[in-house]
Amino acid sequence: MSALTFGIRKRYKFRSAGPLDQWHPSGSEAIYAVTYKANALSNPKKHTVVFFGETPDLVRQGEAIRQGHQRWWTELGGMKDELFMFCHEMPGSSQYERMSVQKELIADYDPQGNT
User: Fold this and answer.
1) Could you tell me the pTM of the whole model?
2) CATH number, position 72
3) 45, part of any domain
4) What separation in angstroms does the CA of 12 have from each of 61, 64, 67, 68?
5) Which residue of 8, 16, 54, 72 has the smallest Cβ count within 10 Å?
6) Residues linked to residue 88 through DSSP beta bridges, in sequence order
7) Is 110 within a domain?
8) 1-21: buried (b, 16+ CB within 10 Å) or exposed (e) per residue?
9) Domain, as residue range, for 33
10) What percent of the chain has pLDDT over 70?
11) pLDDT tens column, 34-70
12) 46 lies in a domain?
């Protein structure tokens, strides 16, 4: 399974969960990144972040996360199968800790879905 690292001031390793439409959530407390490939043909490995989120339970909230992002993306004219999911698990973390990392990453990347 592949991984990406996000963050400018501090680096966070996110494991690939694959295409969002095929994602099978596992784990609990986490920060997650929803991405797409802006230049899939010329640069197929480069992902552009469209949203950073946090959750106390990936499994319980997985379907709502998937549906919400797919609906938002298709309303913008995208296709459901263009989105990918990456997760940075934070076992035992508090919501404050996860939100701090989320806010830091949003400040670093300014993803379209977080505005």
Assistant:
1) 0.93
2) 3.40.1440
3) no
4) 22, 24, 25, 24
5) 8
6) 31
7) yes
8) eeebebeeeeebebebbeebe
9) 3-40+51-114
10) 99
11) 999 988 788 888 899 999 999 999 999 999 999 999 9
12) no
